[in-house]
């Protein structure tokens, strides 16, 4: 009986811990940092950005809507011990803009001590990374 209760508790805790995985989420920020290959900040832009992630795509919308990017998710992993606060998601996505070659990106969303950071690394641009500190990170309603 104790084993059954222990298994049920572990499964219940796991379901709560990974509650955000597989769901549509939205992240907002008001500052974008552009980094070099060594993660040194090259420039900072004050701009409102929204990043929406669902099961199949990621949509990045900066305040300049004309620079909106949509990527198709090719693979992802999700491991959060405390939903939207502590954990990590890694997304592999392909971004295609009309008239341009596809760009392959690795996106890492990491939460530590309640602070959530979004980092985008594009394989075709190894000397440039994009980082934003999330002001909000939650399930999309």
Given the C-alpha coordinates, what overall shape results? globular
Radius of gyration, rounded? 17 Å
Order of SSEs, N→C? HEEEEEEEEE
* Second rung of CATH, namely the architecture: Beta Barrel
- Helical region count? 1
The CA-CA distance between the termini, in Å, is 40 Å
Strands of the widest sheet, in order across it, are 1-2-3-4-5-6-7-8
Number of strands: 9
Structural class: mainly beta
Number of spatially distinct domains: 1
Sketch the major β-sheet. Answer: 8 strands, antiparallel, barrel
Helix-residue proportion: 10-25%
The CATH class = Mainly Beta
Strand content is over 45%
Question: What are the low-pLDDT stretches, counting only 5+ consecutive residues below 50?
Answer: 2-18
Give the mean pLDDT.
87
> Can you tell me the CATH topology?
Lipocalin
């Amino acid at each position: 009986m104790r084993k059954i209760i222990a298994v049920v508790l572990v499964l219940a805790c796991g379901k709560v811990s990974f509650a955000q995985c597989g769901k549509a989420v939205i992240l907002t920020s008001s500052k974008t940092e552009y980094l070099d290959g060594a993660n040194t900040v090259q420039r900072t832009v004050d701009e409102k950005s929204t990043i929406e992630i669902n099961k199949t795509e990621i949509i990045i919308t900066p305040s300049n809507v004309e620079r909106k990017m949509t990527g198709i998710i090719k693979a992802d992993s999700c491991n959060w011990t405390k939903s939207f606060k502590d954990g990590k998601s890694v997304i592999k996505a392909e971004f295609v803009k009309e008239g341009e070659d596809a760009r392959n990106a690795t996106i890492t969303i990491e939460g530590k001590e309640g602070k959530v950071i979004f980092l985008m690394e594009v394989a075709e641009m190894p000397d440039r990374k994009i980082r934003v500190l999330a002001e909000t990170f939650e399930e999309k309603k």
